[in-house]
Automatic annotation (TrEMBL):
Name of the protein in question: MmcQ/YjbR family DNA-binding protein
Organism of derivation: Microbispora bryophytorum
Origin: domain of life: Bacteria
């Protein structure tokens, strides 16, 4: 179990139109200019956009893997400890964060190709 920083970055290459930006201590991830994730290489953690309900459920079920980051509007961002999650589950969360952020037409086109 566990995902390396390189493994996480490779997951992002599987999603269309992801842009990366370095902002000091972290790398941000956006789709068409809207943020859906962050990576802190030093701590090997990522922050991902989720629904508030998903954030609450993840943290309640496995607090050793997930912790709340913040809430903004209808979204609850969650911190994920890379060493404590398997790749399939992480990719599912990354994809969900991307889908919550990308324009509907882009999500539909991506789902059609998948």
């Amino acid at each position: 179990m566990g995902v390396s920083v390189e493994g996480f970055l490779a997951m992002l290459d599987r999603l269309p139109e992801v842009s990366k930006g370095e902002d000091g201590d972290w790398i941000s991830f956006k789709v068409r200019g809207k943020g859906f994730g962050y990576l802190w290489e030093r701590t090997e953690t990522v922050g991902l956009k989720a629904t508030i309900e998903e954030q609450i459920a993840l943290v309640a079920e496995r607090p050793e893997v997930f912790e709340p980051q913040f809430t903004a509007g209808r979204f609850g961002w969650v911190v994920v400890h890379l060493a404590k999650i398997d790749a399939d589950e992480l990719f599912e969360l990354v994809t969900e964060a991307w889908c919550l952020t990308a324009p509907k037409s882009l999500v539909e086109a991506h789902e059609f190709r998948a």
